[in-house]
Amino acid sequence: MTPTNEKRRRRRHSPPASTAGASSSTVASSLAVQAGALTPSSRLTAPADSSSSPPVDLIPDVARLLTSLEDFFSLRAACRAYLAALPTSRPLLASQAPLLLVTLYPSFTEALFHPRLRRLHRFRLPWSHHLPPSRYTLFYAHGFLVTATTAASNYPPRLLLLHLFTGEQLRLPKVPAPFSRVILTDDLLVVIFLPGRATVQHCHPGDALWRVVSTAAPHVFHDLIFVNRTLYALVGLRLATLELSGGSLELSFLGGEYDDTNRPEGDRFMLGECGGEVLLISEERVEMIVYRVFRWVSEERKWVMITSLGGRSLFLGFNGFAACIDQDYPGVRGDCLYSAGSRLGEWHEYSLVDGTCDVYSAEYPGAPPLNNSSPIRPSVWVFPSLC
């Protein structure tokens, strides 16, 4: 059932304080210090067999307890033995909560903001010295930041995949047609499109050109998503599978048309996924933001609204779906949607259980003023546990 109007309410907050997960983070940070998280001048020199440091074979267990990315990399930097024992892999980063990639003002450099700990993780990007910024980040997936050159510096734009943890860079050719949405698969197929258009562009790193394919009129794509290696398309409110093959595509509809009597409720729609199932997510803005989630029921060939995600959480970027998180992270509530807002450093926490919407703002040194008109993009969700 849709939450009643009495239960729907909008609340504005500062970032949530460190509460439930603080003890484990504190313990893990203490272990990291004991393990040799030393000052920069002495890192990678301390012996791993020091009597005050845990043995190397215990270090992966210590790393799995860490809930701060800075603590994880401090532990890696303690000595060469620890560095070798801690590759940037999903099992070792499984406890790392989602972060927001934010912009520092007025330098236009980027940093990672930890919503619960209210901490900035600073790092250097290859384009961070350019003013105004020559690149902006579009999306994060599989450890890579997907970035594009700005129109002022290079047009048509070029995409670059930068691995946040290894520094690997994969450059793609100039993009021939306009786009705003990006999808990245685990085998690094990049699919881009502009919602409301009939064209899809796709490319692998190393390809000389993008492949540009279009569907027949009157169909246009409103959203695309990969779920279990199948590319799904939202055409109007109809779900279809999309097969990309060289210079052509094949569109196969899974359900019939919708009219005013059976259409899902909402104003703006996007595709998502949870537990390997395809979802339709609607957003409605009246007095407050209301999200609704629909599951595709293949037997009935239609969308059915749900109010539970089985304890999982959905994360939405400013332009579309970002990820589904199925583990219990401190500060992340189950059966909730976390959506990056249009304001800089803002995100919404919407509960499917009671219909409440909490609005949070990232407060950090160098946060842009709310009335700033500089070329700064909305924040991007980053998921270290999904590297």
Automatic annotation (TrEMBL):
This is KIB1-4 beta-propeller domain-containing protein. Residues 115-340 form the KIB1-4 beta-propeller domain. Coiled coil: none annotated. Residues 1-28 are annotated as: Disordered. It comes from Zizania palustris (Northern wild rice). Residues 15-28 have a biased composition (Low complexity). InterPro entries: KIB1-4_b-propeller. Pfam families: Beta-prop_KIB1-4 (PF03478).
